[in-house]
Design goal:
The chain has about 140 residues and is mostly helical. The chain has 6 helices and 4 strands.
């Protein structure tokens, strides 16, 4: 598994993390995930080279496609997608995205398609934006 370094301390983590929110009883209710299956999935993730686990419970559900992960990984070296899954087959698909290299033409086509999608609203409310010293994130 490819790794990336984060922050000033150069913390080295796997290029893909594993989002664990879908393993939570509160997230998956009324379908409660089998605890033994989730433990097995996490052990398999470690065996496959993942060492970055997102256990925050503030993120919503995401459906991740291999191409979307590959596109994210191609953007900047500090971008580390954290797709969540409770299925080994999806974990394997997500990991495979780390070795998928999109051609410059692929990236151009994707970026051109994205540019046609209208973005509405600010990233943060205006009162928070005025308190930021690091500039605009719109």
């Amino acid at each position: 598994m490819e790794t990336r370094k984060l922050g000033k301390g150069n913390l080295e983590v796997s290029a893909l993390g594993l989002g664990c929110m879908g393993m939570s009883w509160s997230f998956s209710y009324p379908v409660v995930q089998d605890e033994n299956e989730m433990i097995h999935l996490m052990h398999k993730a470690v065996d496959m080279g993942i060492n970055f686990f997102d256990t925050a419970e503030l993120y919503g559900p995401l459906t991740n496609a291999k191409i979307a992960l590959a596109w994210l990984l191609a953007q900047k070296p500090w971008i580390i997608p954290i797709p969540g899954t409770t299925k080994l087959s999806r974990l394997e698909e997500n990991i495979a995205a780390a070795s998928l290299e999109l051609s410059p033409s692929d990236l151009s086509d994707i970026n051109q398609a994205i540019s046609k999608v209208p973005v509405e609203g600010d990233r943060y409310p205006e009162h928070q934006m005025s308190q930021r010293s690091w500039g605009s994130c719109r």
